[in-house]
Amino acid sequence: MKKLGFEFDQDLREVSTKDLAYVGDAVFELYCRLRFSFDSKNVREHVNAASQASMFDLVEPFLEIDEKAVAMRGRNLKGYRSKDPLYRKATALESVIGYLFLSGKDDRLEKILSFVVTYSHHL
Question: Are 89 and 11 in contact (CB under 8 A)?
């Protein structure tokens, strides 16, 4: 499959969770910047661990089996902030977003991004 002009055919089970989260973080920030027309205040309100943790709580019950497995890997990722439960949930969300982006599940990715950003305002 082609992503951003590059052929990407790596088995996603072999991509590190850290890399999935990194890609997911970039995709999520870009989505927010475009959605909020580069309004930095709105972007900052969404692109942070506390907000993303709340978003993960919103979407977790609706994740499909493969997405739940990726989210679990993201929550269990070890790092310097891995003891922070908000950071762990944010990483879970980013991992799912990275997974969906790289797997070419664009409709599902758009559905999740739109859902979490839209309903996070109601928390």
Answer: no
